[in-house]
Amino acid sequence: MPTLAPRHWVGSLLLVLAVPLLLWQSMPEQQWMVAQADFLALHSTLEILAIVVATLVFFTGAAVAETGRSSRAMELGGAFLAVGVLDLLHLLAYAGMPDLLGPNSPQKTILLWLLARYIAAFGLLGYVLLAERPAPASRWLRMGWFVGMLLLALGLAWLPLTAPDQLASLYQEGVGLTPLKIWLEWGACGLYLLAALLLVLRRRRISGCEFGSLLLALLLMAVSELFFTLYVRITSSTNLLGHVYKLAAYYFLYRAIYVEAVRRPFRQMQHMLSHDALTGLPSRSAVIEHLAATLARAGASRRPGAVLLLDLDHFQNINDTLGHEQGDRLLVEIAARLREVLPAQATLARFSGDQFMVHLEDTTQAAARQCAESLLVALAREFELGEDRIGISASIGLAGHALEPISADTLIRRADLALRQAKQAGRNCQIAYSDALDAVFRRETQLEAGLRQALARGELALHYQPKWEIESGRLSGWEALLRWHSAELGEVRPDEFIPVAERTGLILPIGDWVLRQACLQLRQWRDEGLPAGTMAVNLSARQFRQRDIAEEVSRVLRETGLQPHDLELEITESMLMDDLAAASVALTDLQRLGVRIAIDDFGTGYSSLAYLKSLPLHCLKIDRSFVSDITGDGHDATIVRTIVALAHSLGLVVVAEGVETQAQFACLREVHCDQAQGYLFFKPLAPPECRDLLGACKRLAEGGTAAG
Known about the structure:
The protein has about 700 residues and is α/β, with parallel strands linked by helices. The protein folds into 3 domains: about 10-270, Rhopdopsin 7-helix transmembrane proteins (Up-down Bundle); about 285-435, Alpha-Beta Plaits (2-Layer Sandwich); about 445-695, EAL domain (TIM Barrel, Alpha-Beta Barrel), CATH 3.20.20.450. The chain contains 26 helices and 18 strands. The strands form 4 sheets. The protein has an 8-stranded mixed beta barrel with strand order 10-11-13-14-15-16-17-18, surrounded by 5 helices. It has a 5-stranded mixed β-sheet with strand order 4-5-3-8-9, sandwiched between helices. The radius of gyration is 42 Å and the shape is elongated. One of its GO terms (molecular function) is cyclic-guanylate-specific phosphodiesterase activity. It is an enzyme of class 3 (hydrolase). Keywords: c-di-GMP, Membrane, Transmembrane, Transmembrane helix. It holds the Pfam family EAL. Its EC number is 3.1.4.52.
């Protein structure tokens, strides 16, 4: 049996004292008599307090619908409504009180007493034995139960109140208790002890009460019944001790049932504030508070530890394809699996929607990395949710704390930075924080701050790289490429600032500016009579996902006076495959507009024949990684040849990117690639340089030597 809490020591002491008290009172000559008036006052006080507790237990059961308690609480509330009524009638039927439906007598009061004790015993037995089920939602059903118990109590009390002498005698004046009365008291005692035994055996199945107080209540009620087997006269000390033990039992019953019911909503509210409702794990605020307290202790004792931030890869796809209900079920299963793998002393919390945090105390960084790896291995096993088998991976950022003082915010920021690096590294991996990552973070912060002002300051500019027809040698068009010269940072490479713009959402206004500026530039060259060809503009993933992308492009074309076929929009394979259905709708809208669509960096993504066949595409651009070694790697040459043949069979134009040598150019001509761009011809040029090149092309064309 579990150790009793300090507040139960008084009850435990009463149980210990019961043995010598029962032995003392078992001898009639040791029982001392109390004056009738004094006994009546003491008895009335004890019974009134007992009736109050019975009423509180009834109110607890009556409020089951409002507090979300089970039908067990309702059953006990009804039983103690009957007990309270019978105890009240027992009090009023005592000798010395005004006569109640006939002369008051010991027979009458004992009958009412026994009825109350047996209903209390059976009510507590039912509370312990009944299964945990929600209380009926219908107010009429609940009211019917309580009215029924009230009528039962009044019905049982009717004969003892009106004709108690028609029932078997339970007490004889001057002699004492009859054997029947003694056996009935022993029977009630046995029922209370049985309820106590069942409570211990079924402890894990019983909620909504305080175990220790309820156990003490049952044992004290059993002891109380033993005192009522011993007294010789109604006003003896034995009778009074029995009522004292009954009141003590009622006090612990009050603590077990009523106080627990009152405190439960507050504990639930506190739990809700500190725990995630779906997984039951500590919430973000709770784990940060825990981490701050732990770091304060660890700093003082110089104990190491680590924080792991785990983010599920592409979890949104689960919600989109299987629905949010399955997504929630998956999160619950993931939380359970993580908990199984983690050490017992580790703290696991749900940090955000699909992100979990683990805090490992007294752990070296090497051990933390091993733990992170075990989490990745655990998640690699498929999850079975009904008929669905779901595979999902995760990215983990790790940050350790050793001897130096560190705040919770700083430690979490470091773990988040490492997590971001893990995602950029391809996901399904772990990355530990280092000073180099911190330098990257500071650089990204500077880039983000500068990029927010770059448009307004006029620091962004477009350069244009020409595209050439391989067979004719004519300039076929341009690709607009964004450049940034920051006043504070100097020249910033696109591969540095474009990811920052994507992550922060700044790519949307910047992308709109690029589209408009490139179209204006093409319009200007056309107005100057230069043979500019077409203009290709790269769309970002965020731009492409906008529902009104076709309307935005149409508006820019109208404002700049260009025809739709003058514009080519370049998108990547990953942008298509992230949401193929939405991409198909957007491309169809752009096709109706008349704009050409090119797949950029083809061969590095999905390279699926299915989408090439089904989507309205115009051009494939072979990634430079295949072109760079086309002359030295037979595999790359085969890939390029296959791509060209595949594209031509589908009626698509093929453009090779990153052409830098004559040998590469010769190979591309041999496989009948349509167009090429790269440093072999020209690097990306500023607008004035582009104008000079276009002027030269115009003069060559007019001189009939375009092929040169």
